[in-house]
Amino acid sequence: MGLPDNRLPDDASPEWMSKGDNAWQLTSATLVGLQSVPGLIILYGSIVKKKWAINSAFMALYAFAAVLFCWVGWAYQMSFGKQLVPFLGHPNSALEQKFLLRQAFLSNLPNATMVYFQFVFAAITLILIAGALLGRMNIHAWMLFVPLWVTTSYTVCAFSIWCPQGWLSKLGVIDYSGGFVIHLSSGVAGFTAAYWVGPRPKKDKERFPPNNILLMLAGAGLVWMGWTGFNGGDPYTVSVDASLAVLNTHLCTSTSLLTWLLLDILCFGKPSVIGATQGMITGLVCITPAAGVVQGWAAIIIGIMSGSIPWYTMMHLHKQIWLLKQVDDTMAVFHTHAVAGALGGILSGFFADPNLTRLFYLGGDSQRFIGLLYGFITGRTTAGFKQMGVQILGIVFVIFLNVFTTTIICLSIGSLIPLRLSDEDLRIGDEAVHGEEAYALWGNGERFDNSKHNSVYTVDDLPPVAPKPESGSGPL
User: Fold this and answer.
1) Where is the Ammonium transporter AmtB-like domain (predicted)?
2) Residue 90 lies in a domain
3) Straight-line distance from the first to the last Cα atom of the chain, in angstroms, rounded to the nearest whole number
């Protein structure tokens, strides 16, 4: 039982709060936050062409900050508050002391912890969308896009699927940790926004080499390890199910990465480091909706499928389907998040073990949360087919919602300011957009004063420069 609305707790650790659960939830939230800051900041800043390093990293940093402001201002209550309509809650502040110190829904946690935990999921969703838009979106348009999208799209998905009052939640959709709400949403929204923003310049689209692959791997590693909190925190309690979800997450991801590498070797002759990173991401995404409700052997099968099906859609179908060829999706979020997220949602409906779903849904009805495979095994095929139908309905809803809302947002912003940078800005990159460069090297005693932010330095501030050798292969 939570506290009455008009009463604050008598002490810092009320009886209803579990200290262990609260500590793990705060830790999980921070791990997810580290996936974005600095994980995806590093990944984005290093996987793009050198001239876009700052802009790409900044899009992620800005989104993280802007989402938090919207989240505590109105978006959390729209996602998890009192029902306004079957797919949305009342917009309201999440900063009132009496609210923050009361017990959160479905857990032994204070609302303050739940608000923080759910925020980092909302933030990473916007940052994943940014991956489709790197290298050409007007930064001012992005600054408008973030609050509009988290308000009109993310809140609807989160309330419908994760809030106990949501219509898809009541139907029994299985989305353990965001395969629908985060990954399918970001993949579809990113692809849609990329269509409206337009492509990168032809020169950039044809050749867009990473500026630092080792740094890219460091960012990818933070994303992978941070997923321990991503999937391990969603039971909202320290439980055996949380432990299972963590193990399944890493098992599926490893399998997916190895599968992707094997396909690269068989088809192209070389193991691609960037390909391995893509396989890692698809594995993480695909296991997310199923992490704590499938057995380990199923996690391996999901990993094989997440390392092969998105690989096929990216490497082959993308070159054959007209629509996919028309959209410049910089980080291929359509394949790594939309395809992998939808695949994970379907496989959740197939492999969900009713003995595990009862653990996750706190004694939930096994007739509502049973995978089609176990429906065949136990003779409850009707329940299994119903679960698969609900999963497909959830996928259709998320796709339709994100195409619609993202289109409206892009058209609205585009009527005020350009969605795409000017040709001149696209040619120059970071220096034109931010007045800064990621790799600004000091010359022979000369100061780097192209940026308005670096005008404080003078020649006297620099270390002595060695004389340039007259011949030989000295430093450039």
Assistant:
1) 23-439
2) yes
3) 70
Q: What is the pLDDT of residue 106?
A: 82
Angle at 167 between CA 163 and CA 173, to 5 degrees: 75
In a domain, 4, yes or no: no
Q: Report the C-alpha gap between 392 and 287 in whole angstroms.
A: 17
Q: Cβ of 455: how many Cβ atoms within 10 Å?
A: 11
| Domain that residue 105 falls in | 22-424
pLDDT tens digits, one per residue of 309-333: 999 999 999 999 998 999 999 999 9
Q: Which residue has the tokens 């709400």?
A: 181
Local structure of residue 90 (DSSP, 8 states): P
pLDDT digits (tens, 9 = 90+) for 163-221: 999 999 999 999 999 999 999 999 999 999 999 999 999 999 889 999 999 999 999 99
Evaluate whether residue 436 is within a structural domain: no
The amino acid at 251: L
Amino acid making up residue 227: W
Tell me, yes or no, whether 465 lies in a domain: no
Lookup: tokens for 335: 């394949």
Residues 206/22, Cβ–Cβ less than 8 Å: no
Q: Give the global pTM.
A: 0.90
The Cα–Cα gap between 371 and 387 comes to 7
Domain count along the chain: 1
Residue with the larger pLDDT of the pair 205 and 414: 414
